[in-house]
Write a structure and sequence with these properties.
Largest sheet of chain B: 7 strands, mixed
Mean pLDDT of chain A: 91
Low-confidence stretches of chain A: none
Radius of gyration of chain A: 14 Å
Distance between the termini of chain B: 32 Å
Low-confidence stretches of chain B: none
Strand content of chain B: over 45%
Helix content of chain B: under 10%
Number of helices of chain A: 0
Mean pLDDT of chain B: 90
Oligomer: heterodimer
Distance between the termini of chain A: 41 Å
Largest interface: A-B, 34 and 30 residues
Number of strands of chain B: 11
Largest sheet of chain A: 6 strands, mixed
Shape of chain A: globular
Order of helices and strands of chain A: EEEEEEEEEEEE
Radius of gyration of chain B: 13 Å
Order of helices and strands of chain B: EEEEEEEEEEE
Structural class of chain A: mainly beta
Number of strands of chain A: 12
Shape of chain B: globular
Strand content of chain A: over 45%
């Protein structure tokens, strides 16, 4: 079964520290994608970073990087130098094909709170 | 307007009411999605439309009725809802719905629905 697991329901981090948000996935597909989205209290899902299953290098986007360990089926999000504005829910998602149509499988999310 | 917009942002309705949620995307995308987000649960995909044709219906109760009159607009018609239908309803769009590992979805801010 295809599944995304985020084991940290909530995290408190001091401002300016680095943060690692955990994500493990389960799939039998050879080709898949892994996404991280941020959801502030306003509700909108904001795309952060993407990693393809065949990408050999870890994805990076500014302060965000994805620690992709394919053998362990993990895709952890690393936020460097955290800021107060990083406080939000963070969701890991995996793209998959169901009957040749595109779907995203979502994790339950991690609530990140940055302390000043 | 840019991106994906949703109206209304908040909606309170009784179990016997009929209401509609509206989503509009200004990105030139061909696929649109309705998600339900309940507290502490992963996002649930409700409907997928590609080029105005429904391609996926994840066994959603008939009290939810989608409508996609064109590739820019998506509606969710609601009638005789139950209190457990209270949730954040998110609309998203993507270039298309065909399967490739990368197909970023762009989200609207959501409609917070409360059913009394």
């Amino acid at each position: 079964a295809q599944k995304i697991t985020q084991t940290q329901p909530g995290m408190f981090v001091q401002e300016k520290e680095a943060v690692t948000l955990d994500c493990t996935y389960d799939t039998s597909d050879q080709s898949y994608g892994l996404f991280w989205y941020k959801q502030p209290s306003s509700g909108e899902m904001i795309f952060l970073i993407y990693q393809g299953s065949y990408d050999e290098q870890n994805a990076t986007e500014g302060r965000y990087s994805l620690n992709f360990q394919k053998a362990r089926k993990s895709a952890n999000l690393v936020i460097s130098a955290s800021q107060l504005g990083d406080s939000a829910m963070y969701f890991c998602a995996m793209s998959t094909s169901m009957d040749s149509n595109y779907q995203l499988i979502w994790g339950a999310g991690t609530k990140l709170i940055i302390k000043p | 307007e840019t991106g994906v917009t949703q109206t209304p942002r908040h909606l309170v309705m009784g179990m016997t009411n009929k209401k509609s949620l509206k989503c509009e995307q200004h990105l030139g995308h061909n696929a649109m999605y309705w998600y339900k987000q309940s507290a502490k649960k992963p996002l649930e995909l409700m409907f997928v439309y590609s080029l105005e044709e429904r391609v996926e219906n994840n066994s959603v109760p008939s009290r939810f009725s989608p409508e996609c009159p064109n590739s820019s607009h998506l509606f969710l018609h609601l009638h005789t809802l139950q209190p457990e239908d209270s949730a954040l309803y998110l609309c998203a769009s993507s270039q298309d719905s065909s399967y490739t590992s990368y197909n970023e979805q762009f989200f609207g801010p959501g409609t917070r629905l409360t059913v009394l």
